[in-house]
Write a structure and sequence with these properties.
The complex is a heterodimer of chains A (382) and B (509). In chain A, 73% of the residues lie in helices and 0% in strands. Chain A has 382 residues and is mainly α. Chain B is 33% helix and 25% strand. The radius of gyration of chain B is 24 Å and the shape is globular. The chains are: A mainly alpha (382), B alpha/beta (509).
Amino acid sequence: MDKMPKWADVVLIPLISLILAAFLSALVILAIGEDPIAAVKLMVSGALGSTYGWGYTLYYATNFIFTGLAVAVAFHARLFNIGGEGQAMLGGLGVAMACLYIPWPHWTIALLAAAAASMLFGAAWAAIPAYLQAKRGSHIVITTIMFNFIAAAFLNYMLVNVMRPEGSMDPATERFPEAVHLPTLHDLLAPIGISFSKAAPANVSFVVAILACFVVWALIWRTRLGYEIRAYGHSETGALYAGISPVRITIVAMLISGALAGLMAINNVMGEAERLVLNATEGAGFIGIAVALMGRSHPFGVFLAAILFGFLYQGGAELALWTSIPRELIVVIQALVILFTGALDNMVRMPLERIFLSLGRKRRNVGETAPLPDASHSTTQD
Amino acid sequence: MTVPAIELKGISKSFGPVQANKNISISVAPGTIHGIIGENGAGKSTLMSILYGFYKADAGEIRINGQKTEIPDSQAAIAAGIGMVFQHFKLVENFTVLENIVLGAEEGGLLAPSLARARKELKELEEEYELFVDPDKRIDEIGVGMQQRVEILKALYRKAEILILDEPTGVLTPAEADQLFRILHRLREEGKTIILITHKLREIMEATDTVSVMRRGEMTATVKTAETNPEQLAELMVGRKVLLRVDKVPASPGKPVLEIENLRVTDEAGVERVKGIDLTVRAGEIVGIAGVAGNGQSELLEVLGGMRPGTGTIRLNGDPLPLSGRGSDGQARRAQHIAHVPEDRQREGLIMDFHAWENVAFGYHRDPAYRRGIFMDNAALRADTERKIEKFDVRPADGWLAAKNFSGGNQQKIVVAREIERNPDLLLVGQPTRGVDIGAIEFIHKQIVALRDQGKAILLVSVELEEIFSLSDRIAVMFDGHIMGERLPHETDEKELGLLMAGVSGEAA
C-alpha cells in the first residue's frame, strides 16, 4: 500500500481500463466501416435510455451479481471457481423441480423454496470439485470447468428424457404455474407510482441480489467464518498455524460459492423464462469471473461491475439489432472489456503507481514536512 | 588518497510516508571489508537494493571507482562490477552448480559452449580464491555453506569487483561462518571490495575493517572496527544503552509440563525429519533447542503447535495431545493453553495483508471474548489490540495498519504480545528474534523470561547460539532429527555445542 490512494485503486484503474477497452473497440468498429460514436449512442440509448432498456440491463446485471459474488467468495479463499456456469445450470434444475412438482399458494413462499432448492443444487454441484481439491488435490480450476460440461450434458438429459412434457418437441420443461410467477420491476414499482416497462424481464430477484451483496459483505468481513476464509486465502501455512482447517475452508467456501451461483436461477429461470430451457445460463457463469475481477472481489464492486456488464449485454443486443455490426463483434467488445479490466490489470496499474509515487514525492518536497497521508485507515477492508 | 570503490552521496528513498533512507553518504575504500550494521528496518537492505538497481533512489548519486553511475536495474549493477549474495539464495535447486553459475549469462542459443567456457573459468576462479565446489553436483545435493559459495562464485563469474553479502551467516553453523570469513578475507587480499550487511555485532568485530551504523534510515556513524567495541556499536544502533545479555535469576523448575516420547515426524516428501525424540520441559524453565536450520527443529515445533502430523507421544500436564496434524489441531492446542510463536511470522504467525487488530485475533478468532452473536466483536478486538500495542510498545501504535507495514521487530512484537498475553502453560517459541532489531530483541527476551518466572514452561528453538545461551536454562542440540545431547548453559561452550550441531556425538565432543 501507500503507493496509491485507495480511490485510485478501486475507481481510477477500472475506469482507465474501460476507456482503453472502449478505445480499442471503437477502432474495431471503425475498421468494419461503422461509426463508433453512433454505436455508443445506440448502446446507451438502448440499454439506459428507457425503462425497457433498464429492465434488460438490470435483468442481466442480476445474473452477473449472483455469479460475480460466487466467484468473489471463492477468490477470498484463493479458490478459482470457474464452475459458476454449471452450478447455475444445476440451480436452474433445482428451481424447476421446486416450481413444477410442488403446488405453491403464493410467489413469496415459492421464491423462498426455489431459492433454497437452487442454492442446494448449486452447492451440491460445487461440493464435488471442492472435495476433490481438499482431499485429493485435484486442481479446482480443472475440475470446475469440467463440471460445466457435465452439468450441460446432465441438463440436456434431464430436459430431453425426464422433464420434457409429453408430445413436446422442445427440450424444455412446461411453463411454471401462474402462482409462482415472480413480480417484475413493473409490478413492484407501479404501486409507488413509478411506471416501469411491462415487457422487461427485471424482477424481484434484483432485490434478492442486492440483499445477497450485503450478506456476502457481512459474511466475509464480519463473521469468524469470513475471517477464516480470508486468512486461508492469504496464507495456507498461516491458516494451519491458526488451527484453521484447509479442508474445511475449501469445502465451505466452495459450497457458499456454488450456492450463490445456483441462486442465479431464481432470476433467469423463475423470473424470466418461467420454465427451464437448454442453455438458460447464457454464459453468465463466465461473465461472473470478469465481474468479480473487476469488482476486486468486494460485493459493492461486484454490484457496479455487474451493472456495467448488464449494460454491455443489453447495449450489445441493441447494436446487433439496429446496425450491421454483427453479433460476433459485440462479443469482441465484451471480451475487450474483460481483457482490460480483468487480465491486463497490471498494465494500467504499474504506470499509474509510478505516477502517484512521483506526485507524492513532489508534494513532500514542496512543503518541508507534509503530514503523513492518513490512508492507512482504509487499507484492505470493507 | 585512493579513489573509493563505492561512494554514495546523499541517497534518500521513501516508500509512501516511510522514509527508508535519509540523505545517506558512505564511502568504501577498495580492497576492504565494510560492515553495515543496523536494526531491522533501519534501511540497510533498502540502501543495498538501491545499489543493486532494485529500487531507484529519490535523490543522491552513486559513484563507482569515482565515476558517477546510474544503476536503473540489476544488469547495470552487474555491468558496474557489483555482485550480490542474498540472504535467501537465488539458486535453481535441480540444476547443477555449473548450470546455476551460467544461468542468465549464457551466450548464444546453445548451452554447451557456455557451459564449457564456464567450467574453465570456474576452475580458475576456484584456484584463485580457494573456493572449491563440485561443478557437477546438483544444488539440492550440497549443503547451505556450499550453496553460498555458489552464490559468491556466480557473482565472481560475472566479474564482480564489489561484493555485497546480505546477512550471510543466518543459515550457517559457527564453523561454516568461520569458513565464510576466511573466504572473504581471501577475496579482500585479491583486491575485491566487500560490503557485509549483518545485525550480528560479533561478525562485524571479527570480519570487517570499517563499519557503518544505520538507525531509522540514517547513517549514524562510520568508524574503524579496530577503534570500536560491541557495546558502543549497539548503542549507536539503538540510540540508547542496551543490555546484550539477558538479566535473569536461576530457574527453579517444577513439575514436567511437556513430555515428548519417541516422537517421529515425516514430511510431505516422505523424509523422516524427526527421528524418535525424547524431551521434557518443566514448569518454570526455558529449554533451548540449538541446531543448524533444517535439522528437524522446525518440524518438532510444528508438530507441537498442531500444524503437522507425527507419531509417538506428547503429553501436556500428563494428558496426551492429538498428533493428527489436521488443521483443527491448532485450535485444540490453544484450548489446552499452548501458545506458539511460530518461526516464520510472515508466512505463519501473521496474515500480512490483515490489519494489526485482525492479526491480534489470529488463532484466537473463535475466542468468545471476540464474539458478538454470529459476528465478530471487532470493537472489542480493536480495544484489546490497543492495550497490547501499548503494553508491548508496538510502533507505529496504529492498529489499522496492515501487518506488512510494520518493521520486522514490531511484527514480532504483535505475535509475541498475542501469544504471551494468553498466559499459556506452555509457550513454543521459534526464532523469536530472527530479523528483529536489538531494541526489540531485548524486549522480547525479557517477556519470555518474565513468563518463565511466572512458572510457565517454554520451549525455544533458535539457530542463534547467542540467543540459546542467553535465554536457556537447559540446551538440547538437534542434528539430523536426533537430539545429540543436553547441556546446561554454564557447563558448556560454543565450541562444544558447535560440534554437537555438526553431528559429532556427545562422547566425542
